Amino acid sequence: MKRAVYPGSFDPVTKGHLDIIERAAALVDELIVGVLNNNAKIPLFSVEERVNMLNKATGHIPNVRVEAFSGLSVDFVRRCGAGFIVRGLRAVTDFEYELQMAQTNRSIDCGIDTLFFTTALEYAYISSTIVKEVASYGGDISGFVPEAVKDQIYCRISETQREKCK
Ligand code: ADP
What we know:
5 strands, five-stranded parallel sheet, alpha/beta, Rossmann fold, binds adenosine-5'-diphosphate
């Protein structure tokens, strides 16, 4: 069975992520979307919420499974019994870091290769950070995120803004 893992923070999932998920899922038998629980960063959404949002956004793709993980991506990939890591490349600015990560992962486990997908042009400028920024000013994010998660993002942003006003 050909299995791949697409790891990331997905805080929150965007249409750019979803595009990569759909294209990668079409190439493998099973795609596991790994949601990183990173203690070093304070995310807008908890890891459980991010898993839940990804499940809502990918419900139409039968061979996609969403799981939380912490620690090294390559260890998670091994635990999943997968042979590939999927990553997206938006621009040359992503390239240097992604190349370094791919080479590091391969030196840890030469049985794991990284597959890079160039992003769809219409989503190339989208990042989770931009989505949060636009939503925080009340801008329209419907072009940037899957419809199923849009309201949840606006709700969380307004909750955090209310907290800051207290
Ligand atoms: P990170 O792993 O750096 O926290 P993200 O969770 O935002 O990053 O992204 C996970 C993966 O998705 C990375 O490979 C990233 O390059 C890719 N990605 C992020 N935004 C987009 C986009 N708009 N289009 C395609 N791929 C993207």
